[in-house]
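Need residues for this backbone.
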């Protein structure tokens, strides 16, 4: 009897509970919860749609709730677009949410084209009305007008000024005999799989101030893509390309930052190449000079093969494992032969007042890989340089170098992707450089001492 009574009571409770959930709550004290109180979009380029962001509306009441009105307040004139349950529109009425259920709202934004040079704010809101209550979710984005270049080849001398950023789509090249000059402060955004070919010449006239540096990056500025490596192709200097001088350029997140092909000539001054999964610099039988440059956290930071002529002065070449890829290749690789062991050419390379360092792990035991093939010239010199190598290679010459020392960079935090390659006050690289290189300032524009530090940054007193 007792068991039958319990079964009856349980059944009654279930029916009552079911009936309660099927009823609509009409009390003004009912409330909903939204996953965000505001949706913020990163910089959106004019005429380019944004990523889609989602808003979730939760009915946390124990009864059904009816959203009487869900409205994009800017209506059809809004630059934002809204989609609810697979339907696009600006206003939706009578949306029923079961107890404990939720509703997805998807939002995009298109920035209008105008003559405005500076970023501009785009705003709107979504109004949610239920049981006489009204809640708002704010929407905002920064719009940016840009120059769009699709499948463009520069065939005559051209100058880009810092009026608007440039977005490159499909392909871009500077033809042989032509020079592209990029003035200070210009930002160049490349779409995925868009290479930047230079068969002629590239002149980058960036300057020391952060706002005056010339930036190359992917056109995806939204999280998580803005920090991901390999989101665009990089700079490719073709066979015989010459007259290339890059001053204060920043190259981020390319597959390979700079690729210099056979007999090309490139000079890098105060440049930063970071977060490239293939290589920061890859060169084949080329002439390349780098001064006060930072090449950091790349698959192979500097990879040279097939010989050539190279000079690195006051550079920091350093790599650590990040959340995107594991440090598994030497920071510096030098060979006078091609990748197949053939095409052997003379190799001359000198590293003065540099830091060549990789994260200590069991995968890479020697961060400097030297490969001398045949009887061709193999003249590699390290002077006043800290390098991660267990021993001196007989194929190279070493003068006043530091071996297997930690340079003690200011901040190395792989979990948060926070890397600061300035030197701590106790770094062995301080005052360890050779004087009289004629390099009077560092990458920041800080004056160098008569006895300079190793690497691209001079420690401040």
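Answer:
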């Amino acid at each position: 009897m007792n068991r039958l009574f319990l079964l009856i009571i349980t059944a009654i409770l279930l029916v009552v509970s079911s009936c309660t959930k099927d009823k609509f709550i009409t009390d003004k004290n009912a409330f909903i919860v939204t996953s965000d109180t505001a949706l913020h979009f990163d910089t959106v380029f004019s005429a380019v749609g944004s990523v889609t962001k989602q808003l979730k509306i939760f009915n946390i009441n124990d009864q059904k709730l009816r959203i009487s009105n869900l409205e994009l307040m800017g209506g059809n004139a809004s630059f934002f677009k809204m989609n609810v349950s697979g339907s696009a529109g600006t206003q939706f009425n009578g949306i029923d949410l079961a107890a404990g259920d939720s509703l997805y709202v998807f939002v995009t934004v298109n920035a209008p084209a105008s003559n405005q040079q500076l970023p501009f704010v785009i705003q709107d809101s979504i109004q949610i009305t239920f049981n006489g209550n009204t809640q708002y979710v704010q929407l905002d984005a920064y719009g940016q007008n840009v120059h769009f270049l699709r499948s463009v080849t520069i065939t005559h001398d051209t100058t880009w000024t810092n009026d608007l950023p440039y977005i490159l789509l499909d392909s871009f090249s500077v033809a042989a005999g032509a020079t592209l000059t990029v003035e200070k402060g210009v930002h160049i955004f490349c779409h995925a799989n868009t290479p930047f070919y230079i068969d002629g010449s590239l002149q980058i006239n960036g300057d020391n101030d952060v706002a005056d540096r010339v930036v190359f990056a992917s056109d995806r500025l939204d999280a998580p893509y803005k920090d991901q490596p390999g989101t665009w192709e990089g700079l490719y200097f073709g066979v015989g390309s010459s007259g290339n001088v890059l001053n204060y350029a920043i190259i981020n997140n390319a597959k390979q930052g700079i690729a210099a092909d056979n007999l090309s000539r490139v000079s890098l001054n105060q440049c930063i190449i970071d977060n490239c999964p293939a290589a920061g610099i890859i060169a084949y039988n080329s002439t390349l000079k780098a001064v006060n440059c930072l090449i950091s956290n790349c698959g192979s930071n500097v990879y040279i093969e097939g010989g050539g002529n190279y000079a690195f002065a006051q550079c920091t070449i350093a790599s650590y494992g990040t959340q995107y890829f594991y440090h598994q290749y030497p920071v510096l690789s030098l060979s006078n032969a091609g990748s197949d062991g053939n095409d052997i050419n003379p190799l001359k390379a000198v590293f003065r007042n540099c830091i060549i360092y990789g994260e200590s792990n069991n995968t890479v035991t020697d961060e400097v890989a030297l490969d001398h093939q045949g009887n061709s010239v193999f003249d590699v010199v390290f002077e006043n340089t800290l390098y991660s190598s267990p021993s001196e290679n007989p194929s190279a010459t070493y003068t006043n170098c530091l071996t297997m020392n930690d340079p003690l960079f200011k901040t190395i935090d792989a979990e948060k992707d926070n890397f600061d390659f300035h030197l701590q006050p106790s770094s062995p690289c301080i005052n360890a450089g050779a004087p009289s290189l004629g390099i009077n300032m560092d990458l920041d524009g800080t004056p160098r001492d008569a006895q300079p530090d190793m690497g691209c940054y001079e420690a401040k007193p």
